[in-house]
Predict the 3D structure of the following.
Amino acid sequence: MIADHLLILQVIVPLLAAPLCVVLRHRMLVRLFAVLVGWVVFAIAIMLLTRVLNAGTVDYNLGNWAVPWGIECRLDSLNAFVLLIVSGIAAVVLPFAPHTVKDEVSGDKQYLFFAAFLLCLTGLLGITITWDIFNMFVFLEISSLSACALISMGRSRRALTAAYQYLVMGTIGSTFILIGIGLMYMMTGTLNISDLNDRLQRLIIVNQVPMFVNQTRTVIAAFAFLTVGISIKLALFPLHAWLPNAYTFAPSMVTAFLASTATKVSFYVLLRVIFTVFGVTFAFQSMQLNTWLMPLALVGIYIASTVAIYQNNVKRLLAYSSVAQIGYMVLGLSFVSVTGLTSSIVHLFNHALMKGGLFLAMGCIMLRLGSVQLQDMKGLGRRMPLTMAAFVVGGLNLIGVPMTAGFISKWYLILAALEQGLWLVAVLSLFSSLLAVVYVWRVVEVAYFQEPERPAGGELRRLNEAPVSMLLPTWMILGASLVFGVYTEFPVGVARRAAEMLMGVGS
Amino acid sequence: MPNLGLFNYWVVIVLMMTGFYTVIARGNLIKKLIGLNVFQVSVFMLYISMANVKGGTAPIIFEGAKIYSNPLPHVLILTAIVVGVSTTSLGLALVVRIKEAFGTIEEDDIRRLEEEA
């Protein structure tokens, strides 16, 4: 009985849990409850993914309304995988929360913090499961409005301006998406993703001239609005202006969660809209989207990595590195091949693990040291050995050292480039790893090879290692990135299936 | 209802660009939000305009009504209006807190204060 409704429970559970947090109100209860919800959601996602991998697509009609009238939810290998990533990160980040939230969010607002967090989770999961493009927009707004509230809870007053900027940029992005959806509805009269794909390829008569729906100017404008709107949400270079400040000033836990899920879900939306709604032929042959995306991705990787090198706030450094990593994902997409898409989807998974882990390590440092400025982190390798070791593991992942998950994504990316004889692109993406070496090394050098400055005349403040409830999630998520760097069948297998489905080859 | 041709859509485009320009060009945080609102409202009008069916009446069943406007975009826009209201209220709440924290709502002044810190 319940098994039939798992798909919708995935969204309903956190959606109902959010107001319950406000009702419970008690600090301890709310924390435990949120952790429980996170785990339940993760368990559902695992069940759904196994079902999709064994039996193929899972469908669900909301309220049992048949498809053209009702809203459909559909899970295939791509969004089941994204679902696993989002809910998995939430399940790891929530147990991490109590200490840092106590430290960074004032006591009377904590239950609201968790309520907003669960709403944000609802939005992200909702975007992932829905098969109705307007529904996608609504969930996108739920997630970005609650993310905005979460960011504004940061300790520094700059969190407020960062949240404001995120709100304005995000709203422009989602309004662009809304315009795109409207224009498509105008031409097709449907919002269901499969229907849209079907009707966009039909032949109609415009001014006595027969043409395909997707050759009309309205649909081309819709395509442009949707791509630009989603790119803002995705923080694709040069539309990434909102991202660095939002990640820097948000509470540590929020940064870890958003960095590893929000942009990933936006990337999923991009894939879905380009490949499933518009189709490969339209997007890449008629519109030549790849000739735009490839240079933007490469320039984005280089500029963002270079800017990252010059940052003195480590959270900010990692935020710029995120912009660069989004570049790698988009680069994989722009090859328009199964291998390229596999590398994008694998990187989506791997980057969620490594950035999540790195930002969690930043959370530990923020809790004990009270700062994530580079000059304060001198000698931290000896003062907080476990946390800094976690940072090093995450850093190696970012660089793409063999035996780490980061290597696997780079490997497939370069394979995809070589497959098409794009030697220059392959060399450029290899070379860009050197920039990652530089920015990771800057932190490692300060933490391990510099003596901490003693306050004049006083003793150095003793620092305890972060509490187990924080170290454990950090190491779990980074440990997973090491495991999936060696046992690659699972992420690569699922990603390849998803890529083949998107390209329309294989099953 | 007289056929207005593409008049509605021209209004939509003018409003859209006005709003978008205000968001980008204005330094006052409240004015930015006003611009954002105008931008969003223009999209509401886009949806409502495309729902119109020539000679159609409101989608309510009553004597003598034969052709109805398409109700779906109306419903969609109800949702989008709710989204717009919550965006505006969240934005205004943030502006209140920014005013408390920085003592100003002018972007340039805030940036100066941020760089000093």
